[in-house]
Design goal:
The protein has 71 residues and is an alpha+beta fold. It is 21% helix and 23% strand. The chain has one domain: Alpha-Beta Plaits (2-Layer Sandwich), CATH 3.30.70. The protein has 2 helices and 5 strands; from the N terminus they run E-H-E-E-E-H-E. The site of iron/sulfur cluster (SF4) has 16 residues, from helix 1. Iron/sulfur cluster binds next to helix 1.
Length: 71
């Protein structure tokens, strides 16, 4: 069985661009006036792994990390 794909978000790096939210609104959230995005979950569904990779690449602040399996 393969391990779930996890996601981490460094809120100290995040600059609230919101790109991640537009790519994966089920995973990332950016409340109004928030200084940083937050995670709604720390694992993504297998069907969302490609979108997560895109979010990692698209984040201008390099605040998103994709991790595999339990740490
Ligand atoms: S794309 Fe990056 S900088 Fe923008 S809200 Fe998401 S984590 Fe923050």
């Amino acid at each position: 069985m393969s391990n779930p794909t996890g996601v981490r978000l460094d809120q100290a790096r995040c600059r609230s661009y919101g790109i991640c939210v537009s790519i994966l609104p089920d995973v990332f959230d950016l409340p109004p006036n928030a200084k940083a995005a937050r995670l709604l979950r720390d694992e993504v569904d297998p069907g969302d792994v490609d979108d997560l990779s895109e979010a990692v690449r698209a984040c201008p602040a390099q605040a998103i990390t994709q991790v595999s399996g339990p740490e």
